[in-house]
Amino acid sequence: MSLRPDLFAARVRAIGSPATVAVSNRMREMQRAGIDVVEFAGGDPDFPTPMHIVDAAYEAMRAGDTHYVASRGIPELRDALAAKLLRDNGLRYDPAREILVTPSGKHALFCATMALLDAGDEAIILDPSWVTYEACVRLAGATPVSVPLTVDDNFRITPDKLERAASPRTKLLIVNSPNNPTGRVLDGDELQAVAAFAQEHNLVVVADEMYEKIMYDGRQHVSLATLPGMRERTLTLNGFSKAYAMTGWRLGYIAGPADMIGEMLKVHEQSVSCATSFVQRGGLAALAGPQDCVAAMAAEYRARRDLIVNGLNRLPGVRCHLPEGAFYAFPDIRGTGMPSAAFAEFAISEAHVALTSGDAFGACGEGHVRLSFATSRERVVEGLERLARALAKLRVALGQPAVG
Fold first, then answer.
1. In what order do the strands lie in the sheet with 328-329?
2. Please, which residues have CB within 8 angstroms of residue 300's CB and are 6 or more apart in sequence?
3. Are strands 234-239 and 252-255 parallel, antiparallel or unpaired?
4. For residue 204, which phi and psi values (nearest 5 degrees)?
5. Burial annotation 52-87 (CB, 10 A radius, 16+ → b, else e)
6. Phi and psi for 367 in degrees, rounded to 5?
7. What's the rounded Cα separation, in Å, for the pair 175 and 122?
8. Which of 7, 161, 361, 377 would bridge with 128, disulfide CB 3.0–4.6 Å?
């Protein structure tokens, strides 16, 4: 006997599982069946966590650091984060009151939306954007409102686009640079547009800077909170997953005004109590140790970026902008004649290549797919070759030239 649907919370029934998880699960099922699948779907670096980080966590466990710690995060890590934010981002935060260490950046986002949003509130989300933004807004009982961004102008933010999304109920704006899934990095004009809009409408901004260390072609990351008038209304979200290849460690943090962090702390304490003790020691080692591992990974991502974009642009019906940051390509596949979901299904079924349908990231993602190049160059080449063969076979079946 199944339970009545109305026994479950409407705010939970309104969301689904992330498409990124669904395609990864499909890939694993195929692999268990003995099928080799090239994985472009996930956001998990293929690099191992640097050994000095692993050693620090291991030694902490050996020393008995396996118990509850301060809910805000161990003091040593908060001090190190404050030093990092000042050195790398030009942001000064009080480690005792303005920094919260969380088990993942995703949990930091959850705490922020739960602390800031009520039923009837609206939160503005750029479209396309990471799948979890909308879900967290809905879980808080609020309404997500999209700002459509299109490939025709390379997903640029403009003041008029932001204004069309505003209403008296707007309370929060979420921005992400470098962006997942598009790979865009906000330029100075876009940052100024966001800052002016937030101040005019008295909004809080969550600035997701998870990919700040993965930028290309000489670009420099600028934290939104450094702009005049923005520190007091910005929550700067970051973590260790991407820069240090620590996805499985689940360690993030968020910095902002003390009153906001204090309200988020309540959600954090009542849900997880604290981030894992020995994982925080690993995070401390990541910040205090050598940073050449970060630079080396970013350099390899750039080589993979060039490889995958060049290959995608040789596929019939596919066109791809050069990502400016992060490790995702977001090609326009409208020329193939397939919608996003159909292309993703075609890729995994016919080419044994797992990628993510663009519409998972919002309505403006339709006509695109996302490919992560957080995998080896050899696998990038293999995946591109498989797609090329499958598309050529499809075109012949449709009576078209094998190449276009």
1. 328-329, 369-372, 356-357
2. 47
3. antiparallel
4. -90, 140
5. ebeebbeebeeeebeeebebbbbeebbbbbbebbee
6. 90, 0
7. 15
8. 361
- Strands 234-239, 122-127: pairing is unpaired
List pLDDT tens digits, range 87-116. 999 999 999 999 999 999 999 999 999 999
DSSP letter string, 78-135: HHHHHHHHHHHH-----TTTSEEEESSHHHHHHHHHHHH--TT-EEEEEES--HHHHH
Using CA atoms, how far residue 282 sits from 38, 86, 252, 265, in Å, is 31, 21, 12, 22
Element (H, E) at 357: strand 356-357
117/170 Cα distance (integer angstroms)? 10
pLDDT digits (tens, 9 = 90+) for 146-198: 999 999 999 999 999 999 999 999 999 999 999 999 999 999 999 999 999 99
b/e for 116-148, b at 16 or more Cβ within 10 A? bbeeebbbbbbbbbbbbbbbbbbbbbbbbbbbe
Q: Are 46 and 300 in contact (CB under 8 A)?
A: no
